[in-house]
Amino acid sequence: MSRETRILTFCLAVLGIVGAALVFMLDISAGIVCTITIVCVYITITAYIHASNNKARSLSALLQHINAVEGNLALIDSEEGAKGILKDDIYKLVARTNEYADVINRERAKAEDALADISHQLKTPLASLSISIDILQSSDLTTKQREKFVSDMRVALTRMEWMVQSLLAFARLDSGTIKFKRETVNAADIAREAASAVAMITELHDQSLMCSGDDNVALECDRRWTVEAITNILKNASEHSGDGTTIYLTYGQNPLSTWFGVTDEGAGIKLADMGALFKRYAQTNNKGGAGIGLPLAMSIAKAQNGTIDVDPGGNGKGATFTLKLFK
User: Fold this and answer.
1) Measured between alpha carbons, how far is 299 from 13 in angstroms, rounded to an integer?
2) Measured between alpha carbons, how far is residue 111 from residues 108, 116, 161, 281, 325 in Å?
């Protein structure tokens, strides 16, 4: 019992005794009734104070339990009244705080994974550049050999630039900072812009890129990110086609969607690799690729109510990726 409670109880007892004594001086019967009444009131007040103290101790024990327990809490009982409401609110507050902590931990883990992935993905082109520079410093190289190493360095630099841009795009998508802006655009313009973005890559491999489709097709989408998605699909086609091949970019529209198809002249996709196509950083048995472009393209498509269908090809037929944006 607290000091304030003891003082209050003492004052009530003194007042009761004094009051009862005064009534006894006037009338004995009235004094007896008054004494009984004062005792009953005193017992009631004391019991109420004791019950309140028990509730305070119970809530204090609850808070100590919450502080001592990590992870999710479950309600172990249910009570009615103000105490039950307060107890329930405390549990809700703690549960919400735990959820926020879990979100922060997940985001921290994502950031750590992203940094590790960036480091891993950049090691190969950086190592290639370092080796090429060391070799170029040799005076025994012919002009043709030097040109070959310079060309390889251009490829490595292009790959690094694309990987950095893609990883940054993934980071923005994961953080939810990208706001897709829907606008009416021409499908042919998007196709030509995507083709232009991979012109340097196809040129390095002596590849041709053929665009065809209905030039009157219009759609509502985020122009920049749709171009980004198609560019990544085109880059994937370039990586999995041989030098001197042709990549076909088509576009069109039907009652359900506007589509962009990319077909290469590679060997097709093995069925065992189909499940890993859109998994981030997943490696397949095909040459090239870092497991970034196709997952990024799929994320962009889904963010705009779309998807990407795959025809694996094979038996002398290349693969076809079709990005569909539904109306």
Assistant:
1) 76
2) 5, 9, 20, 15, 30
pTM above 0.70, yes or no: no
Domains, in order of start, for the chain: 3-98 (no CATH), 114-175 (1.10.287.130), 183-326 (3.30.565.10)
Tokens of residue 240, six digits: 């999995």
- Give the residue, 28 or 270, on which the prediction is more confident: 270
Q: Which helix (H) or strand (E) holds 306?
A: strand 306-311
Tally Cβ neighbours within 10 Å of residue 290: 21
Q: Is the pLDDT of residue 257 over 80?
A: yes
Predicted local confidence at residue 307, as pLDDT: 96
Structure tokens, 284: 């397949």
Residues in the chain, overall count: 327
Dihedral, CA of residue 215, residue 211, residue 189 and residue 197, to nearest 10: 180
- 173 vs 258: which has the higher pLDDT: 258
Those residues with Cβ within 8 angstroms of residue 244's Cβ, 6 or more apart along the chain or in another chain? 205, 206, 207
Check pLDDT > 50 for residue 180.
Answer: yes
* Alpha carbon distance 262, 230 (integer Å): 8
- pLDDT above 60 (res 284): no
The answer for 176, left when phi > 0, alpha when psi is -120 to 50, beta otherwise, is left
29-to-17, 23, 36 alpha-carbon distances in Å:
16, 9, 11
Q: Tell me how far apart the alpha carbons of residues 290 and 273 are, in angstroms, rounded to a whole number.
A: 14
DSSP per residue, 11-61: HHHHHHHHHHHHHHHH-HHHHHHHHHHHHHHHHHHHHHHHHHHHHHHHHHH
CA dist 98 and 292 (Å) reads 33
